[in-house]
Design a protein that fits this description.
The complex is a heterotetramer, with 2 copies of chain A and 2 copies of chain B. Chain A is α/β, with parallel strands linked by helices. Chain A is 41% helix and 10% strand. In chain B, strand 10, helix 9 (212-225) and strand 11 (231-235) form a beta-alpha-beta unit. The chains are: A alpha/beta, B alpha/beta. Chains A and C meet through helix 5 and helix 6 of A and helix 3, helix 4 and helix 5 of C. Bound molecules: thiamine diphosphate (2 copies) and magnesium ion (MG) (2 copies).
């Protein structure tokens, strides 16, 4: 098992990220955070029925997106992946369409709970709410890529809780046997809803489970987007070289209750939450970029106000759209005559 | 008698059985400190400790499989599946193992356990927090399936299920949890599994239903009664084994039947009930056996428009009552 | 036309589709060198290599889950579950994932895959190599369920299933594999999913069945015909979506119906079919809708006495024919 | 991961096994082998419908039984466990009742395929044919023992194929988290029917999967019954001391096709099979006992003829019994009124 150290204190521009990319990583983390906060407010106001957040996971998720070929690599997300969706390329409007469940929502046209993203252009595969069922899908997408010779990888995202499920074991093992170009990306926030890690598993690092499948396991600081991007980039290179899957574990913390329906005061000490929030990866990354001279006060303010406007617009836009048509209810149970499929229609 | 909601009734049943029988244990995700995502196990960990109220890893198959093992050695596990939609990973343990243990060992081993799970739609749960799963499990010999609709039934049936010598899938309609309030006896009581109840007597037709649809059916029956159509409403309460006697007796009196469920139509439990009527009460029938159910799409969408459209409700049932009465 | 058994017909269908469409791949346990435990994939690994004929680890959930992933990227996987009894560990992948992918993504993604599996009893398979699983899956919107009874149907339907844009559960009755031989067209052909066939026309009653029970029903019909009772025998072929038109047309002509399946009675597919008849052809019915099925015990025991007792057969069907004809 | 070395060449009586026990281990291995061969013949003659063997696994299975408290520890077997059943205490007659599926068969009264053993007196739990579903059961039995304070362990038996299944992952992890007194006993014969280990997993040793759950993994020579017994005994002691589960992997070879329905010539080179058979653990153990002076020519012959008679008697006895009653078909779907349960009736 490899442990990738945090690079947070390096004070020169990392050679592998140009300033524009660094700013873009920051912008997407912040956009995600802003959307996240707004969605939470909308749910508290009763304007959204249910939301689930990625607050605290932004560095890991956006960082991972920047280690991939966005739009070419296959993404199998889970419900905690708002920041990933934004990191890959989904827009504020698209996110808010999911939150409001309105006509035109590209993820599901309002059929799924919010934050269950899907997008054909970004090769983001629709996920269910069932934990870990996406892991074998990523293996299958990678099998397909391998068979057709397309130089892309598939990535499955899941929590440390999900690593205890049968589908993790079976999916990772299958991919390992066939040396498939896939990355298993675990976001370890120490809890499955209220169940703390010590009641989920005996081990410290989910990454150490890689050895059970004969694949590398990598621990990375999930508060450091660049470390995460690098770990993903390396895993991607390994996968494309035919060396098979990598299990990456990003250590993160969930800032919010599990969802708008949860109350984490029942099971998490406030000091623990506050300590994690004090290490918030977004201001930390901002400070880092400032120290590097990649971002200054005015650029930072510009980004913030641009994002504020973007999110305002997205809320207004989404809320202006109609609810899905009643008649739409029975569409797409099966293929419609003459419909063009994305899957199966190469 | 005290007025309680379904949630409270269930929590009390758990509490009382844990208190009176030390073989009873609870395991599932978030059943400890969190008290369950719907709070049905609230406070239990304080009273019975983490060795009897066990927070499980995210492993439905192990939750049921471990419960099976513990039941084999004499414990009385109550396994919780957080949402019925997430029961499928445990399908094999339920169908191949719990339900067949007694049969395959010719009575040597058995699995006295309960699997509790919230099911059903109507709380904006979207495709994966809304499913009805009863038809699948009512087709599994060796497994009992219970689905109460009221607080008093929930308590009496859950206590009976915990004491039952066989595995019981206990389905709690999540919309009833807080919505349905009624009197619950204060003393220790159980209600027999396998017995339906006539909740509203009537002479023109029989409505056979369960769970949340009991309440919608009762509303519909009241609405139709305004015009003198008296529908009898039967709450099945136990879905497997079915109370055939209650179903057939009623239809033999009313000569017409409507089966109502929230689950999708094709292959739903309504088919079985209609078939029983069509084969065993055919001579008594004065009209087609009607089914009111959700359409054949995969659970209810998240958005409100379509959730309403998807779900059967009092209006749809009333329409069916009026049409059948006029047949 | 050449006479073949069901096994040969299936092997040919696989072979032809693998040859004509390079997106087609096969994965499952022992499908490679071993050629499948029933030899349905015999020789394929020599012709198409181990990258398209993939021996999988003992992981049903991954077999289906990987097939889903590959189908999403444009392949056409044929996943094999070695025995239908072992499909339950893959239940979640089938129900929550394959069947709902198109719906939940509003048509963006889809899973054109086939899950092949041998089901049914009569070869001394005991409790876990004999099960009928069709009712469970016919209740899953978004999934098609096919169950051929003859070699020609097996081939034509399997080829159609492979080319179908949606997930198809393809059930092969293992007793038919070697037992049922018949003419199979030599040219490339498919048969439409969702269409039943009238295998034996008759005017006194309709038998609606599928799989191995088609053959028992035909025998029973012949036996009853000796006394002038002419039973129409319908082979459903596709169990989901059901060919309601074929069922209702027949019953409207004969006025009586028997549904026959090998699966256990309660909650079986027969309930749905009977319900359809009782609700949509009620006015045409001259007798109760009769079901002939296995009893409500968990699959057939290993010992021969009880296996025979458990399974429906020509004699039991004939008895039902004579009784219903006399009604 | 610990590797227990084979003790095959030690020439003094091991202090921890007295001569009578050594002879009994040998006798049970031989009894199992003889029953196994006879069952195979019966199936070839059409007198038994289906059999599955443990030939080649006898040292591992009987050895493991002698590391346990037979009759007190819970046993969750799989279909490959004829030698285990005999090792624990089932009689030749009881085995043949399963093979002939006759009235009085204690395992299932003729309901299950042969070799699916169950016995109330020996605490052998009925297993299905579904691979690995018994693993979580063993965790549950151990949970029960722990809660009630009974000083016993539960043991789950399974093949290396079974270690790839979700239920292995979930069951072992659950047991590890709760430090349950359970032993996971993997019989690695290198194949899941025809699928060779390299297509099942990347790793060499299933035991190395223990680390993924934070529990010890032990590799043991499955041809050496004493090494196996010791490994089990140690794991048992660890379990009872409150130190949780152990994953033991016995390296074995399956001498026969998977079952009477299989033809292993399709997938296993004859030389590989022959080489394994040349290392047959039964004659090897006989030689060892002879060298130790625990067994001599005449004792050996006495055991052989005793077993031959025992097996003849068992076949005759079982074949003389009736098939199960037709009316029995519908019994025990649910509890019968007034019936005494073993499970749930303490
Ligand atoms: C199979 C399944 N079981 C239970 C749930 C309910 N549930 C939703 S999220 C969750 C916890 C997941 O924890 P983890 O995998 O660590 O992800 P996190 O939410 O912490 O990012 C649970 C139990 C589910 N969605 N799927
Ligand atoms: C869940 C499941 N899938 C498939 C099968 C069919 N099957 C029976 S045994 C077997 C191979 C098992 O291999 P392994 O676990 O290594 O045990 P071995 O037979 O080699 O001792 C298979 C695939 C089954 N019984 N259960
Ligand atoms: Mg987590
Ligand atoms: Mg093996």
């Amino acid at each position: 098992m490899i442990s990738t150290s945090s690079l947070s204190n390096v004070a020169t521009i990392p050679g592998d990220f140009d300033p524009a990319t660094l700013r873009e990583i920051y912008r997407r983390m912040l956009l995600s955070r802003t959307l996240d906060l707004r969605a939470w407010t909308l749910s508290r106001q009763g304007r959204a029925h249910f939301v689930i957040t990625s607050r605290g996971h932004e560095a890991a998720e956006v960082g991972s997106a920047f280690g991939l070929e966005r739009g070419r690599d296959w993404i199998c997300p889970y419900y905690r992946n708002l920041a990933l969706a934004v990191g890959i390329g989904m827009t504020a409007r698209e996110v808010m369409l999911s939150v409001f469940a309105r006509e035109g929502d590209p993820s599901s046209n309002g059929r799924q709970l919010s934050m269950h993203f899907s997008h054909p252009d970004w090769r983001i595969i629709s996920g269910s709410s069932v934990v870990s069922s996406q892991i074998p899908h990523a293996a299958g997408l990678a099998l397909s890529a391998k068979l057709s010779g397309e130089p892309v990888v598939a990535v499955a995202y899941f929590g440390e809780g999900g690593s205890n499920k049968g589908d993790f074991h079976e999916g990772v093992n299958f991919a390992a046997v066939h040396r498939l170009p896939v990355i298993f990306f675990c976001e370890n926030n120490g809890y499955a809803i209220s169940v703390p890690q010590r009641l989920e598993m005996v081990i410290e690092d989910v990454a150490s489970r890689g050895a059970a499948y004969g694949i590398p396991g990598v621990v990375v600081d999930g508060n450091d987007p660049l470390a995460v991007a690098r770990a993903v980039r390396e895993a991607r290179a390994r996968a494309l070289a035919g060396d098979g899957p990598t299990l990456i574990e990003a250590k993160v913390y969930r800032f919010t209750p599990h969802s708008s329906d949860d109350d984490d005061r029942l099971y998490r000490p406030r000091e623990e939450v506050e300590a994690a929030v004090a290490r918030d990866p977004i201001p930390a990354f901002e400070r880092r970029l400032r120290a590097l001279g990649v971002l200054d006060e005015s650029a930072s303010r510009a980004i913030q106000s641009e994002i504020a406007a973007e999110v305002d617009d997205a809320v207004e836009f989404a809320d202006s759209l109609p609810h899905p048509e009643p008649a739409d209810l029975l569409r797409h149970v099966f293929a419609e005559n003459g419909s063009q499929m994305v899957g199966g229609a190469r | 008698m005290t007025v309680k909601n379904v949630l409270q009734a269930i929590r009390e049943a758990l509490d009382e059985e844990l208190a009176s029988d030390e073989r009873v244990i609870v395991l599932g995700q978030d059943v400890g400190r969190r008290g369950g995502v719907f709070r049905t196990t609230e406070g239990l960990i304080d009273r019975y400790g983490p060795s009897r109220i066990i927070d499980a890893p995210l492993s439905e198959s192990a939750i049921v499989g471990v419960a099976i093992g513990a039941s084999l050695a004499g414990h009385r596990p109550i396994a919780e599946i957080q949402f019925a939609d997430f029961i499928w990973p445990a399908m094999d343990q339920i169908v191949s193992e719990a339900a067949r243990m007694r049969y395959r060992s010719h009575g040597t081993w058995s699995c006295p356990l309960v699997i509790r799970t919230p099911y059903g739609a109507g709380i904006h749960g979207g495709l994966y927090h809304s499913q009805s799963i009863e038809a699948t499990f009512a087709h599994v010999p060796g497994l009992k399936v219970v689905a109460p609709a009221t607080p008093a039934d929930a308590k009496g049936l859950l206590k009976a299920a915990i004491r039952d010598p066989d595995p019981v899938l206990f389905l709690e309609h999540k919309r009833t949890y807080r919505l349905i309030k009624d009197e619950v006896p204060d003393e220790d009581y159980t209600l027999p599994l396998g017995k339906a109840a006539i909740v509203r007597p009537g002479r023109h037709l029989s409505i056979i239903t369960y769970g949340m649809m009991l309440h919608e059916s009762l509303k519909a029956a009241e609405a139709a009664a305004v015009d003198g159509i008296e529908a009898e409403v039967i709450d099945l309460r136990t879905l497997s084994p079915l109370d055939k006697t209650a179903i057939l007796d009623s239809v033999r009196r009313t000569h017409k039947a409507i089966v109502v469920h929230e689950d999708s139509l094709t292959g739903g439990l309504g088919g079985e009930i209609a078939a029983i009527i069509a084969s065993e009460a055919f001579d008594a029938l004065d009209g087609p056996v009607v089914r009111v159910a959700a359409p054949d799409s995969p659970a209810t969408p998240f958005n409100s428009t379509q959730e309403e459209l998807y779900l059967p409700n009092a209006a749809k049932i009333e329409k069916a009552i009026r049409e059948l009465a006029a047949y």
